[in-house]
Amino acid sequence: MAFVVADAADSAGTPVDREIVAAAAQLYRDLHAHPELSGAEEHTAVRFAAALRGLGCQVTTGVGGHGVVGVLCNGAGPTVLIRAELDALPVAEETGLPYASTATGVTADGRTVPVMHACGHDLHLAAAVGAAAHLAQERDSWRGTLLTVGQPAEETLQGAAALLDDGLYDRFGRPDLLLAQHAAPLPAGMVAHGVGAMTAGCVTLDVTVPGRGGHAATPHLCVDPVLLAATIVLRLQALVARQASQDDPVALTVGTLRAGHHAAVIADEATLGVTIRSRHERTLDQVLDSVIRTIRAACAAANSPREPTVRVVSRTPAYVGDPAMTSRVRAAHLGVFGTERVSWWPPSLAAEDFPLLAVGGIPSSYWMLGTVGPRQWRTVPGATAAEKLGNLPTNHSPAFAPHVELALPTGVAALVAAARTLLALD
C-alpha cells in the first residue's frame, strides 16, 4: 500500500464548488450530532430528503423502512445510483468534537444505549448530497438520471434487502451503474480501490441457549445458561481455529452475550449475537453448519431442557467489483486526483450489504475514502503504513473522527467523477 499525506490546501484543487462543499459540511455536522440506530433513522432520513429536495430532486421517503430515494432526471441516458447509509452505531462518542453526539437510542430488545456515527455514514450521506448538488449545478455537461439513495439498516446488513423488497428498481428504474464509497483509516484526500473480494460475506446469527433457572445456591438443580453460553463461545473459537485456512480466512465473533437480571438468580436462558465472515459462500455455509452443530451438541451435553434456537438475522455476500467498471472508475479518479492520491486497498473481512443491490449483475464500483488528517497520520506510531493503520482509531471506535476538511471534498469529487463515467456527454 502506497499512501501519501495530503495537506488541507490540496482540497482546493478538488473540482467541486466551495459553496457546495460548505453546505455538505454543515449537513455532515448536523448528521454527526444527531445519529440514529439501524431501523430508527427517521430524523436522519428527513434531513437527507430535505437536502435532496433543495437540489430539485424528486424525493420519495419510507422506502424499505426509512429509506430515501432522490431522482434527478436530466434527459435521456443511463441511470447511475449513488448509495449512502443512514444508520449509526451503539457507541459512546469520545472524539471531543464540538459537534460530538450525545444522542441515545433504544435497541430492539428495549435497552437505551449511546449512539454515534462511528463508521462514517454521516460522511457518506454528506458526500452523496454534495455530488448530487454538483451534478444538478452542471446539467449541461451530462445526460441521464441520477438516483441518490439513503439506505437504512446497513450496520445490521438488512437495509439493502429491504430496499429491494420494497421495489426499489421497479419503482425508480433499474440502474446501469451502482456507486458507493466507505470511510477508511487511510490519509484524508486519498481514495483506494480493490481487486477481488474487497469485503467479506457475512452471516449474522441470533442464538438462544435454554437453561433451567433457579437459586444461585443450588446450581446442581439448574442448567446454568451462562456457563453453557461461555462454553459455546470457547468452542466456536476453537472451531474456527481448526476449520479456517490461511488461504481462506474466517472471522467468527460473539459480539453480545446476555443473560439474567440478578447475581443470585440463575437465568432461564442466554442469548448470543454471532457473526461469521468469509470471502467465499461455500466456506460461510460450511462454518455455519459447524456452528449450529456445535451449539446443539453443547446444549445436549449440558442437558438443556429445550433445543437451542439459531436464527439467521441477515446474510450478505462478499463484494467483488466489476473489473471493467473498477478500472474505468479508477482511471477517472486518477484523472481527478493524480497517482499519489489513488491507491489500492487489500481484501478485508469487513462486511457490507451493498453487493445485494447488484442483483442480476448490475455493474458497480466501490472504493475506500481516506479520513485521517495530516497531523494525525504523521504523529501516529509506526514506521510503515501498515503499522500506522494498526495504531489508528478504526471504524466502530469511539474515537473515530474523519478529517472533514479533506475527506468530504474528496468524497464529493470521487462520486462525481465516477458518475460521469456513464453520464458525461461524449
Describe this structure in words.
The chain is α+β, with helices and mostly antiparallel strands. The protein has 2 domains: 8-199 and 318-423, Zn peptidases (Aminopeptidase, 3-Layer(aba) Sandwich); 201-315, Alpha-Beta Plaits. Helices cover 34% and strands 25% of the residues. The chain has 11 helices and 18 strands. The strands form 5 sheets. Strands 1-2-6-3-7-18-8-17 form an 8-stranded mixed β-sheet, with helices on both faces. A 4-stranded antiparallel β-sheet has the order 12-14-10-15, with helices on one face. Strands 4-5 form a two-stranded antiparallel sheet. Mn(2+) binds at residues 119, 121, 155, 182, 396. It comes from Salinispora tropica (strain ATCC BAA-916 / DSM 44818 / JCM 13857 / NBRC 105044 / CNB-440). Its cofactor is Mn(2+).
- Runs in which pLDDT lies below 50 for 5 or more consecutive residues are none
The radius of gyration is 23 Å
Which secondary-structure class do the elements indicate? alpha+beta
- List the total number of helices: 11
SSE topology string: HHEEEEEHEHHEEEEEHEEEHEEHEEHHH
CATH superfamily of the largest domain: Zn peptidases
CATH architecture of the largest domain: 3-Layer(aba) Sandwich
Fraction of residues in H or I helices: 25-40%
Strand elements, count: 18
Q: If you average the pLDDT, what whole number results?
A: 95
Compute the number of structural domains: 2
The strand line-up of the biggest sheet is 1-2-6-3-7-18-8-17
- Our estimate of the beta-strand percent is 25-35%
By CATH reckoning, the class of the largest domain would read Alpha Beta
How far the N terminus sits from the C terminus, by CA atoms, comes to 34 Å
Shape designation: elongated
Stated plainly, the CATH topology of the largest domain is called Aminopeptidase
Q: Summarize the main sheet.
A: 8 strands, mixed
